[in-house]
User: Fold these one by one.
Assistant:
Number 1:
Amino acid sequence: MKRRTLAALLILVVAVLTTWYTRQTAPEREVLAPAHVPDYFLRHFTITRLDPDGEPQDRLSADYLVHFADDDTAELEQPEITLFQEDGPPWRIESATAHIDRPADQTWMRGNVIVQRSGPTIEDTEMVTDHLLLHPEANTAETDARVTITRPSSRMTGIGMKADLNRDEIALLSEVRGEHVSR
């Protein structure tokens, strides 16, 4: 019986010492951040988001979307975003590419960005710029690039722009030039 106890005690001591030695001499494992790899993609799609009353809030269409799960972002090709308004026609925004950062409620539109709104009860509006930061939840947009705003009766250009699309308020920030077109 003493032999078995001694043998069991010896095995236990060897196991403890082996575990301790392995932990002391093993290299520290580097904790890697999750890889920025796509988890899904869509081609030629349209997604409509509804408000709490079931009415369309906004619509996103694009030729291609690739989504990344690690940071909940997406890259799009040929996107078109429609922001529906309670009073009046929607705003339509299109560009060559876009980057959507959902946690920050930011959509970066890049390359020939065109923002349009037209309807029977409002003056048609078209804004053209190289890039635009859109906040879809707040219906606001901004850029630090050159912007051209065209309406039937006027044409304005400037550098930098802030827009509240809910209120139809657009402010050019610097080097503003305009011309009035008489009908």
Number 2:
Amino acid sequence: MQNITIKTAALAALIGLNIPAALHAELNTALPGEQEENFALPLNIDLPAQPLAASLRQFAIQSNLSLTVDSALIVDKKSPAVKGRMTRKEAIKRLLDGSGLQGKVEGEKILIQRVTKAEAKD
């Protein structure tokens, strides 16, 4: 019985030693190095000139991104053909060229929004 009590006390002491370290732990939200490198690799893009909504949908599927866009912003807009090997940011910039819209790639999401006046001057 005494042996069990000593083991229990030793285990409790060891757990107690690790509690302060757990309280000061930081959450690492960075992508693993391999995933981050793969995400930055250029993709082969082959999208015909077509309605912008269709191009954005196809681009999101090809690039494995989640798309967020207000449909009122893209109704009746056309996108140029985009073909070649490029990064996701390059491709979305080409798709939206001349539309008055911009795409912001953040992680695994892409947000389409109007270009602000300040950004249009740059």
Number 3:
Amino acid sequence: MRETQYLISEDISSYRLEDMPLFSSLKAKYLDQLLSVCKIRSFDEGEVIIKEGARDCWVYVLISGKVAVSIQTVEITVLFQRGDVFGESAFISQLPRSGTITAQEPTECLAIDAVLLSEVHSSGNELFFAQFYHFLVRLLLQRLGLVNEELVLVKRAFKMAVDRKK
């Protein structure tokens, strides 16, 4: 992994963050505060970004590349869209990482330091945090909906297999 120092707004003009859903609704003042607790991290193909069971304090926003999400060595999904967010569950729950994220090709991410982010929160930026958490809640609900759809498919397939054996 290679990483930059913590960012300032001038560092990121070439990344067009304002085009990403997480950042599109943030006012410039809040974006500057968020960037002050962010780094750009680059990963090589095959490099583990997040290890299942680990405890760390980073939330990632995909800038470029592709990452695989796996749980107990089973690949669950692949994230490849600019602006995809991962690592947010451990940030919200304060629990160990629930899965492993591995770069499937050279990948660049904006890494948000959640420990420092909480310090920004304590400085009276309630509107920023309301927007940030609202985004994360919508993201998690969207993912929960996808999991529910897959669960329905698995239950139907299981029922059909059981019915065939009767």
Number 4:
Amino acid sequence: MNLGAIWKTDWFIGSMLTILCLFTLQHETSPLSYLENSIYDTSTQHQASTMNDAIAIINIHQTSLIQNQLTAKQALVFIINALTPANTRFVAITDLTIDSKGTSISSDDTKLTHAIQHAGNIVLPIHFDLSTDNTLVINTISPQLKSLALQHAAPQPVHLDNPVHAVHIHTDTQHMIQAAAGIGHTNIITDADGITRHASLTMLYGQAYFPSLPLILAANALNISRSDIRINMDNSI
């Protein structure tokens, strides 16, 4: 028997496919998707990325807030006021649900809104609840919110799953939106195995397309205005 040719036999191929199918069923994904994800995961683990020196990340640590007797929003006001005279191109805030208690606007909210408006270069986060079956839900949105959406989007072919549809927007920060230079959604979408491998660059809500925070930051870094962004679903941005 030619052992070198075993891998070519029907029983060997059938056994391997059976093992592959059983293994991937445990991960609730198709064999091809599992292989694709495995290759992607392996390649990304071996890719080294370096931080751009022009980018600064400021983390508001709970311990430092306690030591300085500040709320997170008070710390944001201090940081924004310090960065404004330094001619920072733009500042992105990734979480504004901190310190939120109820729906009333606190004095911290008012001061933060004034700091955002005065700076003129602040990009705020927004967060959506997503449709479980990715179907379009018609929602009424405020003119202020709609003015910060992307203005140019090609019609969506009916067979596409893009874009991701949102059914509700969290309103914790809507009183600050009008003062912002831009907004971007912070929704993270995971695959069936719980790992995040892709990002939704746009979100459809109330028949308006909203950019992700990474997309609007990349556009700002390339000096591309929101009005110049063009969307071709499942093709290009």
